[in-house]
Amino acid sequence: MAQIVDARGLSCPQPVLMTMQEIKKTGKGQIEVLVDTDTSKENVSRAAASQGWQVGNISAEGEGYRILIKKDA
Amino acid sequence: MGRLKNVFATRWGIISVGAFIGVFAALLQKWGNPGNMGICVACFDRDIAGALGLHRADVVQYMRPEIIGFVLGSLFAAYLFKEFRSRAGSAPIVRFVLGVFAMIGALVFLGCPWRALLRLSAGDGNAIFGLAGLIGGIWIGTLFLKGGYNLGRADKTHTSVGWLFPLIMLAFLILRLVFPPLDGQARNGVLFYSLKGPGSMYAPLAASLLIGLAVGFLAQRSRFCTMGAFRDLILFRQNHLFLGLLTLAVFAFLTNLIVGQFHPGFAAQPVAHTMSLWNFGGMVVAGLAFALAGGCPGRQLFLAGEGDGDAAVFVLGMIVGAGIAHNFGMASSPSGVGPHGVAGVIISLLSCLFIGFTMRQKAA
Fold this sequence. Notes:
The complex is a heterodimer.
Chain A lengths: L2 E4 L7 H13 L2 E7 L2 H13 L3 E8 L2 E8 L2
Parallel strand pairs in A: 1-2
Antiparallel strand pairs in A: 2-4, 3-4
Helix pairs in contact in A: 1-2
Chain B lengths: L10 H20 L10 H11 L13 H16 L6 E2 L3 H18 L3 H9 L4 H21 L8 E2 L2 H20 L8 E2 L2 E2 L12 H18 L3 H11 L3 H20 L16 H18 L3 H9 L3 H19 L13 H18 L6
């Protein structure tokens, strides 16, 4: 079960802040981040990678994206 | 998705965009723009306010094509890469007010973050105090962000909402074409012009407009932001945007050296004063306002170009703020801060702190 972070409609740096908070809280596993701009998509992916998380599938959803990030163990 | 990867969002992308802006900002000065002001978003918004007659400082009146180019270049890039998204409704009144305060602070220092870098790269030591203030202001902003400061979500809206600001810029461009500056005349049609001072100094229209369009295009693709550069460094220890900022300063410095625009010192620097405390204080206010609004003045223009109605409101706040700053004697001049500049800094700082402390909300 992936945790969901809904950052749609929020401007910089809220999507990254929320993703980082969730990463800290869960430590490992899967998180799905919902964003609605390409900038947020890039920023969230970059932030997740910097924390040692893998950026998995990025799918278009509505006007935005659903980004799956994960970390095993 | 099968879409091309955005090369400008890579490390080399942001670095090359910083280099482009650094070189061409220095060249715009060479080609006629005011001293150490090849590009200054705050100063140029202020000049536009003057051209429209929103303030009475007759030395800073010019419909700057660079600003128009930034917005339209970003609009073009956003459409080309299918990123135009009309959105609005995230506390617009707060963004307007932050734009006003950002401008008051920037005009006490005499420059936006871009110009702070350009001033430094041309040897103006006073810029060090401005940049220190900028970083200090952004640092205060990050404390609010960590504490839950948030202006709430924007909503998707009619496409035409996102078009309004670019259309305003198009209208400004038409005005500039229909009523061009005339030798020795302080007015042509509805537009005001300066006969002396920074407002009377400008690069040829085509150079200003084309470089503005190119910068707008590249900055939209790369998400170039000077406030974000420091914010991400402080908040997330991420240096991505900072690399762009650093490259801008280095390439502007090199270009200034080559074309003979590097003059190190503190006294008698162009469109600058030496009151260090207020160079610092003005930019603390500006940095905090940018951080609370989520972008430097340049970034707000690029966002406005890609459909962000809230960023457009921030820019309108800056233009109106320029009128207030000059009419109320809060803007500085080369002789020092204006008669009410100190009061302006203190009131603006307190107001920004009020916004930061009281606008915390859970993103529901």
